[in-house]
Design a protein that fits this description.
189 residues; alpha+beta; Immunoglobulin-like; 2 domains; five-stranded antiparallel β-sheet; three-stranded antiparallel β-sheet; 2 helices; 19% helix
Length: 189
């Protein structure tokens, strides 16, 4: 999955998941948020009373969150003090991460709640990068689609080349072709 951005009023946050934006069940997963105000000003964790909850989807109404991992300030990709946490998802499936926050005294941004869907894959015993069969997870590469696009492109090129061969040359093209076919005089002549 690409980094997900969610916006609420004057606050936006980009979710980062390590490793590779594809969390696996029963493995520690590092997550962090680049939290900003409108205009791009960073909101570090020290300026926000933030809370993170993790919910397994679909969930029943009024059920408590599955996890409430504590947020810690993190420095990553040049951002200092951004909210981050380590989560171990108990099973594969669909989850929702909910980041909410209010400004600490003396800070000014609107209270927010941001929700992020996350798909967690099962870890195969023999392959640590396995994903459920037949599913295209967000951020996963669909090689069949890439192949179909490449073949379509090659087909278009072949048709264009065949069409070009059937068209008669214009005078300017004939002149250019004749010049290109003339023998090059050597410097000795």
């Amino acid at each position: 999955m690409a980094h997900q951005v969610e916006i609420a009023d004057d606050v936006a946050a980009t979710l980062h998941i390590e490793p590779d934006d594809l969390p696996k069940a029963n493995e520690p997963t590092q997550i962090w948020f680049i939290l900003t105000r409108q205009g791009g000003k960073l909101i570090p964790l020290e300026d926000c009373q933030c809370q993170l909850t993790v919910e397994l989807e679909p969930r029943t109404p009024n059920s408590p969150p599955l996890l409430e991992p504590p947020l810690q300030p993190r420095t990553s990709e040049g951002y200092r003090g951004v909210p981050g946490a380590e989560i171990t998802f108990p099973q594969s499936g669909n989850y929702e991460l909910v980041l909410s926050g209010i400004p600490k005294p003396g800070k000014s941004f609107k209270p927010f709640q941001l929700k992020y869907p996350v798909t967690v894959t099962a870890k195969a015993a023999s392959d640590s990068s396995a994903q459920p069969q037949g599913q295209n997870l967000p951020g996963s590469i669909d090689y069949g689609l890439i192949g179909a696009i490449a073949l379509s492109g090659l087909g278009i090129i072949a048709i264009a080349m065949r069409w070009q061969k059937k068209r008669p040359l214009r005078e300017s093209q004939k002149s250019t072709l004749r010049q290109a076919q003339r023998p090059v005089k050597s410097q000795k002549d």
